[in-house]
Design brief:
Strand order of the largest sheet: 8-7-6-9-10-11-12
Oligomer: single chain
CATH class of the largest domain: Alpha Beta
Distance between the termini: 13 Å
Strand content: 15-25%
Mean pLDDT: 96
């Protein structure tokens, strides 16, 4: 029986994918094998020694101490693409909010309460103060062509915008989903200079923190509209405040405001609603649960942020899973111990990601003693062994 701890309210349809006979799910689990969460901040949490895997029902993992998990042999999963449509739709809404003063107009209209029969005439008189322009024919730069960025680019194209994408790490699978009418820029500087709107769809990492700063803003058109539905730290707050005040940036629409941004002129602050749809929450939960099950039941790793992607069909017998430091002579030592136990290898795969190597080995035996597990763990560099 695997014990699963939930740290946020997780969609019940997703949790129902855990078979009751093999998994116990609760908010009060002690010594959990797995944790499922959304935005709960785990950085100050002591990780239980029993913990083998964490699944984030969403794409970002900034709330999880990934490096610590890697050191402890804990696999961290996310669910890229599961909430992509929900975020895409909000980005499109952000484009419209940035081009038409809908929010200002709505707030002004509320001030007319109490004017009775005069309201229609007052509306007609005052509406010109809340005009704007259409997005059709305007230029959009999508920075980051992952699951969300590609959907945003394609949708904006369908709305009549001139769309350019920029992603130096564009994968083949995402490139195939991108409309051939969308130009992929090689130079970010040139792309910034020609855009009326810029949508940020990249993860927040040490390398991308303050990605949009005074230098890049200086390369943009005057009055450019910036949409950030990825993470707040991608934009330098001090530089943004100055650019909004001067009019260099016309509007800033974000789903990740902090107190400083809330105070800024021409900032439209949305309270992290990108994935807050019933469909997104269900899709993310289902994907997170299915990935945990595949890991626990078959040792396969799908959509991990700290372990290599590994997927091997079973070949019969039992399965041995070993994680180790990515250094030479590990596979031969592991195979030697299995051979000494009289096990014949039927099939195996070895993958690595940075400093982590991961092995799935199918053998012809149906069981191995705990002494074999201890022998494998005694290999210098091995930090996790499971028998499935």
């Amino acid at each position: 029986m695997y014990k699963v701890l939930t740290l946020n309210k997780i969609d019940p349809i997703g949790l129902s994918h855990f078979p009751e006979e093999n998994y116990s799910i609760s908010e009060q689990v002690t010594e959990p094998d797995a944790i499922v969460l959304r935005s709960f901040n785990m950085h100050s949490m002591e990780l239980p020694s029993s913990l083998k895997a964490i699944a984030r029902a969403g794409a970002g993992v900034n709330n999880i101490p990934v490096d610590v998990c890697t050191q402890k042999g804990i696999v961290v999963f996310n669910t890229p693409g599961a909430n992509a449509n929900g975020v895409k739709e909000l980005v499109i809404a952000g484009l419209l909010l940035a081009s038409r003063d809908i929010i200002g107009g709505v707030e002004w209209a509320k001030t007319l309460i109490g004017q009775g029969e005069q309201v229609p005439a007052l509306i007609e008189k005052g509406k010109s103060n809340y005009g704007g322009y259409e997005i059709q024919g305007k230029s959009l730069l999508v920075v980051g062509l992952g699951a969300i960025g590609v959907l945003v680019a394609n949708a904006a194209l369908q709305l009549g915008m001139n769309v350019t994408g920029y992603d130096p790490y564009l994968s083949v699978s995402q490139a195939l989903k991108l409309s051939n009418k969308i130009q992929v820029a090689r130079s970010l500087e040139l792309a910034l200079a020609s855009a009326d709107f810029i949508s940020l769809n990249i993860p927040l990492t040490p390398e991308t923190k303050n990605y949009i700063c005074k230098t890049k803003m200086g390369q943009m058109k005057d009055g450019v509209k910036i949409l950030n539905f990825s993470r707040g730290g991608l934009v330098n707050d001090a530089d943004l405040a100055e650019a909004l005040e001067s009019g260099k940036v016309g509007k800033y629409v974000t789903d990740f405001p902090d107190e400083d941004v809330l105070k800024m002129k021409n900032a439209i602050c949305i309270p992290h609603l990108g994935a807050s749809t019933e469909e997104s929450e269900t899709n993310c939960a289902i994907m997170a649960v299915d990935q945990l099950r595949e890991y626990f039941e078959n040792g396969n790793i799908i959509n991990s942020v700290n372990f290599p992607q590994v997927d091997l069909e079973r070949s019969g017998g039992m399965r041995v899973v070993v994680a180790n430091r990515n250094v030479p002579n590990m596979v031969s030592q592991i195979a030697s111990i299995l051979a000494q136990a009289g096990a014949n290898i039927l099939n195996m795969v070895n993958k690595n990601r940075n400093e982590v190597a991961y092995n799935i080995i199918d053998i012809d035996k149906t069981e191995l003693g705990e002494n074999i597990k201890e022998s494998l763990l005694d290999i210098d560099g091995v930090f996790m062994v499971r028998f499935l």
